[in-house]
Structures are given as structure tokens and as C-alpha cells.
Amino acid sequence: MLSRSTACRGAQRAARSQAVRQSQRRGLAAPASGSFQYQSGDAKGVKFASRDFAGPTTTLALVSKAGTRYQPLPGLTEGLANFAFRSTTKRSTLRIVRESELLGAELRAYHTRENLVLEAKFLRDDLPYFVELLGEVASKTKYEPYVYNEEVVPLIHAAHVRFLASPASMAINSAHSLAFHRGLGTPTASASTTPYTKYLDPSTIEYFSKIAFAKPNFAVVANGADHGAMSNWVNEFFDDSPSTVEVEDSKTGSEQTKYHGGEERIAHAGGNAVVIGFPGSSSITGKSYKPEIAVLGSLLGGQSSIKWSPGFSILGNAKVSPSTYTHTTSAIYSDAGLLYTVIKGSAENVAKTAATAVDAIKKIASGEISKEQVTKAKATAKFKELEYGQDVLAGLELTGSGLVHGSKPYQLDEVAKAIDGVSEEALKSAAKSLLENRASVSSVGDLFALPYAEDLGLKV
Amino acid sequence: MRRPWLSRWVKPLAEWYVNAAGYRKLGLRADDLIPEENEVVQLALKRLPPKDAYDRVYRLRRAFQCSVSHQLLPKEQWTKPEEDTPYLTNVITNIESEMKEREDLEAMVVEKRSKNAAGH
């Protein structure tokens, strides 16, 4: 039998030689962070972006404008995501799985509110194989009824059960639907069984795939691939994708998102969660970009980034008990955003912490925060943004969605610059505008103990 | 067609045989006669579209009734040759090729790429 070290030696050497080649390719005077930027291009109508990140592996993703926001019928996005990497007219599911296993790759398909992402991680040399695979999945998947019944429906059902078991994800989805109604407000998992018992069947999924995988609606993004090679392969393997949407397009979700707000209370025996949401900032590639929202989010915070300390964030210090989970997220979408705080824990603690969260926003609005806190919040926001972008997966999706929506990739450096420029005044006025607008408040759990939004002092 | 003369010669014979087999006189199709007591056919039956599965059960029950009462169906209800389509065989072939592919891949010998193998 081969010993472990022998078996790995080849891979190690390959990795080493790749790394050496990388650094040699860069000239002496070239900046080390140059590869941080994505280069974008267009190959026969397919938008693509790549960055030549030094390293032996590549992450490739097909980002399609087919998230739950854009689905014409409920459940279609989930159906399409679960049909990814199944039998195509050229190879079977099993063959796709075995071939990728032989190449040591990872395949994944998932969706967010706006995007459907097919993703492959593999060794650098295998780029052509996986570009071909993604092209094949996009245009040649067979939407067989028996595959739907045997493999897709159980997965959708599992996601539905998982969704119902988690008060926090129910609360977050409910807050989104209060804030944006249809479109962005559509829940990311089936909230009831209706979507897949009433609306979903293989032929509607196939219809949706023709919209989702038409050339104007997706982008191919690679991290760790040479731009020239990428352009070459994308040019070659996406010929079968339709260059325009050929079927009758419902245009669901493409209208400008409007913020509504409101309150929803759902009884649940499995835990307690309160989500307090406010209109937030769009992505930098969108129209209503407000960097101060990101800073406000990290100022409210809730989770410590340092060990053995509650952290500097206001909620991290103000929460009632250490066992109460608090977290503030600035969710950014292409044309709108939602700044929301999630509070989880026992009902009494959640109720008290929700009240302190609203007090904290009032304090920021009236300027009762120190300069030091603002500086810390800005530094954290900037760090998180850059770290998030460096995290390959998130960066891929953001870049792809930027390309599809505004035909410009998501450039981190610009975001960092914008966050640097946030003043204390801007922060204050942002907090004030939060309280003036209608909030989106969702409480899931023990409704006897959880407060109404009006009791918290919010306008709904 | 490669050998029209052969088809011209054998086809009448085949038609005579199918009629003599008698299943058409009970309103059945050839695919209704496939033994279903094995995993492949059970899976194939599960994969049939709901309408096909319903019609199949109807034909089988009608044939049982005829058989029990020692009668044939009235002539206009006999299966017409153009109705006698291989609706189940297609599914079975698919399943069998799937299983064959799995076995083939199971028996595959994995070799290193020549580029990586050099130097070991």
C-alpha cells in the first residue's frame, strides 16, 4: 500500500511549482494586491470575470439572475438548484459525480435571494473540464419527471422542514417579506408544502431554466484562473446557451424594489427569535449605496470578533445575558437592502434585548456615542467587507451578480474607500432616518413574552 | 431499412405469431406481459407517468376478468397493432443502462495522469 506521504508528494510538488510559477510571472514592480481586482470580459455574449489569484486551486461559479426574487412561480429556484449537475444529454448524474471525484473537485449548487450559483472548486489545470461542465449543466440538463420525483422533491421537502424548525430563519424571511413584499420578500425556502405540491413540476422548471440560463441572465466568474485561458474556454463551451430569452419571460422581480415595513408575529414552540429590520443600503453596483449603513451595522453588532470579551459593539455589551444571540447584518441586494438585527434566546431575554437594541439606535441618532466607538465600527466594517470579499465564495457571487445586474464587477477597493469616508454626522443622520421610517419587525416563538413593535418604540 | 426483402418476408410471420399469442384479444399490450417481480421492473413501473400506470392497471384487470369468465373481449376492444407500443421497455432499457454504467464505473482502473506520474 502506498503510504500517505508518498501519495501526497505529487500533489505537494504540483502545488509548489504552481506557486513558484505564479510569483515569477509577476514583474518586480507590479503590486502584490493587483490580483485582488477582477478582470471582466465578454465572450460571445457571455459575461465573465476572473482574477488570477496565486494558488494551486481554482473556484469557478456560474452566477445566474434566478434567485427566489426572480422566480415566476414559488419553488422554481429551489427546483432548478436541485436539478443542477443531474443527467445531461451527454452524461449521466453518476458520470458527472465520478469524473469530478477523480479530478478531486467539489461541486455545489445553491441559491440566495437574487442569485442561483453553480459552483465548482478544483485544481488549476482542470479549468477546461469544469467550464465545459457548467456550460453543459446550463444548456443540456434533462428535466426528467422521475429524477424530479426521486431526487429533487425530497431535497426541497428537507429544506422546507429545516426552515420550519428554525425560528431565526423564519423570522429573517418574514422580516424580508414585510419589508419588500413580493420579489426580494419571497422566502428562500418553501414556507409551506404548496410550492412543490401545487406549482412545481419538471416542465415548469425546464421553462425557468431557459430564462435563468439565457446569456444575458448569467455570468461566469473564476477565482484563480488566467484571464486569457478563461476567455478562451468560455468562448468555446457556452455556444448552446440561448443568446436571448426565447420563451415568454414573466419578468418577475425585475421592477425596482420598494420598501414597505410592518410587523408579523408567528407562534412557534421550537425557540424564540426577534428580527428588527430597517431599510438598508444596496450593493455598490446598485443605485442606493450607503456606506454608513454598513458602519451602523457593525456599531450595533452583537457578536464579538475577539475571544473572552463581549466586543466593542453596542448590542454585544447591552444584551441581557451572554447566552442571548444577537447579530446585526446589513443585507445588500442589487437595488435595495435591509439592515436587520437578529435576537435569539429565551423569550424573556429576547424581549429585553430587543428593547435595548432600539434604545441603542436612539442613542446613536442623538449622538451619544464616543468617537472611539465610531472609529472601531469603521475599522470593523472595513475589515469585514474586505475579508468577506477575500473569502472566495462570497466574492464570486457578488462579482457575478454585479456583472449580471449592472455589467460591472464588485470591486472591493471601492467599498473600502467608501467606508473610510463615512463621517460621524452621516452615521447619526442614518440612525435618525431609521427611526423615522417604518421598521420591519418579526417575532417568532413564545408570543406571550415577545414584545410588539409599538412597545419597543418603533414605527410600523 | 437495410434489408427490405427480409422484413417483407418475416413481418407477416411475426404478425401471425402475435395474433396467435392471443394477448391482444384480452386487450393487453406486449409490455403488460413483462414479469414484474424484480427490482428493475418495479422501479420502471414507479417511473411510469400516472396516466400510463392507470391504463396499465385497467388493462390487466380487464384481462383477468376475461380470463376468469373464459371469454374474449368483443372484437372492437381488441388491442390494435398500432396501440401495442413498448411503453415500459423504454424505461427498463434506461434503468438497465444506468445500472450497467454504474457497474462499469465501479470496475474502472484509476491511473495517474502521465504528467503527474513522471518522477515517482
Contiguous uncertain segments of 5+ residues of chain B: none
Mean pLDDT of chain A: 85
Report strand % of chain A. Answer: 15-25%
**Major sheet size, sense and barrel closure of chain A:** 6 strands, mixed
What separation lies between the terminal Cα atoms of chain A?
A: 68 Å
Principal-axis shape of chain B: elongated
Coiled coil (chain B): 88-115
Family (chain B): Belongs to the UQCRB/QCR7 family.
Membrane topology (chain B): Peripheral membrane protein
Main location (chain B): mitochondrion
Description:
The complex is a heterodimer of chains A (460) and B (120). The radius of gyration of chain A is 23 Å and the shape is globular. Chain A is α+β, with helices and mostly antiparallel strands. The termini of chain A are far apart. The longest helix of chain A has 22 residues, at 4-25. Helix content of chain A is 46%, strand content 17%. Chain A has 2 domains: 39-237, 2-Layer Sandwich (Cytochrome Bc1 Complex, Chain A, domain 1), CATH 3.30.830.10; 262-456, Metalloenzyme, LuxS/M16 peptidase-like (Cytochrome Bc1 Complex, Chain A, domain 1, 2-Layer Sandwich). In chain A, helix 10 crosses helix 13, helix 10 (291-300) crosses helix 16 (424-436) and helix 13 runs antiparallel to helix 15 (412-420). The model of chain A is unreliable at 1-35 (pLDDT under 50). Chain A contains 17 helices and 11 strands. Chain B is mainly alpha-helical. Chain B has a domain at 20-98: Cytochrome b-c1 complex subunit 7 (Cytochrome Bc1 Complex, Chain F), CATH 1.10.1090. Chain B is built from 5 helices and no strands. In chain B, helix 2 (39-47) crosses helix 4. The longest helix of chain B is centred in the middle third of the chain and has 19 residues, at 50-68. The mean pLDDT of chain B is 90. The chains are: A alpha+beta (460), B mainly alpha (120). Chain A binds chain B through residues 6, 9-10, 13-14, 92, 94-95, 98, 102, 145-146, 149, and chain B through 46-47, 49, 98, 101-102, 105, 108, 110, 112, 116-117, 119-120. Chain A: Residues 9-27 have a biased composition (Low complexity). Chain A: Residues 1-34 are annotated as: Disordered. Chain A: It is found in: Mitochondrion inner membrane. Chain A: Its main location: mitochondrion. Chain A: InterPro entries: Metalloenz_LuxS/M16, MPP/UQCRC_Complex, Pept_M16_N, Peptidase_M16_C. Chain B: It comes from Lophiostoma macrostomum CBS 122681.
